[in-house]
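Suppose you are handed a protein chain with no further information: no name, no annotation, nothing but its sequence. What can you learn? This example shows the usual starting point.
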Amino acid sequence: MQKPSGPLSGLRRSPLVRGACGRCPQCGQGRLFVRFLHYAAQCDRCSADFRAADAGDGPAVFVIFAAGALAAPLAILFLLVTRSVLWTGLIFIPLSIGLCLALLSPFKGVLFALQWVNRPGRAVSPDIPGDEDAG
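A reasonable first move is to predict its three-dimensional structure. Written in structure tokens, the prediction is:
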């Protein structure tokens, strides 16, 4: 298999880009999701096992903050210009929901890929009883 070359080849190997594109964090080619927000059990290209890692609720928190930071100022500006609470709600509530749904999958992929790269399962702590590998 030929290695990618060119100015964007390093960027394609980034876990941020691979996760945001929904690609395997290990090989960058297989699919990370089998359907909306559901991880595949393993990569269909390199057979990397995805069952051990999970991004949890982190992506939802980041998406809410990002969507709120984008939508709230625009909604306030729109409200000040139009002076219509009804139209502001009719436009910005569906817009905010759509923005959250659009951002959730890339954010979930990025956090999964970062978790995959940093291998949190290997972490040990002397503060945890029964963790013999520490110290």
